[in-house]
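FORM 12-B: Structure-to-Sequence Request
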């Protein structure tokens, strides 16, 4: 399957889509860790680093969110969420592989945080991320090739 993934900057008109996306992709994980699932809590997370939010589109249809911050030596993956009907189709893996390619070319690390209850952790591990820090609720992961070089 050829994935024609496009990105566009998120705008405030996307908030309803983003809230619905977050509820459907995160509530189970947040509830399992006894973390807040109110609309207010979701909107706070959506608005965090909103200027870096990209709407993921396929065939001009919004299907997810990608929020990354490119720093001097690191790509910080803040959020990636794919609407449930588009999950398990290779979209997340394609996006992550593109980020890995960018990191290799620019000699940067990639960092992300994932809730312990989120099955996406398995995808991250399978494509080369390793856990470098563990908190009560989440793991901080670094793309493995660079984690070794940086002494993690």
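FORM 12-B RESPONSE
SEQUENCE OUT:
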């Amino acid at each position: 399957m050829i994935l024609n993934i496009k990105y566009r900057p998120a705008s405030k008109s996307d908030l309803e889509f983003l809230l619905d996306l977050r509820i459907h992709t995160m509530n189970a994980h947040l509830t399992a860790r006894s973390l807040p699932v109110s609309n207010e809590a979701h909107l706070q997370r959506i608005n965090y680093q909103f200027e870096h939010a990209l709407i993921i589109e396929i065939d001009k249809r919004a299907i997810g969110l990608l929020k990354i911050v490119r720093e001097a030596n690191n790509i910080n993956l803040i959020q990636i969420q794919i609407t449930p009907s588009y999950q398990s189709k290779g979209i997340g893996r394609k996006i992550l592989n593109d980020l890995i390619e960018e990191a290799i070319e620019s000699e940067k690390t990639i960092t992300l945080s994932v809730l312990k209850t989120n099955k996406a952790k398995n995808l991250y591990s399978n494509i080369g991320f390793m856990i470098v820090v563990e908190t009560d609720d989440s793991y901080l992961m670094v793309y493995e090739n660079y984690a070794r070089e940086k002494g993690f």
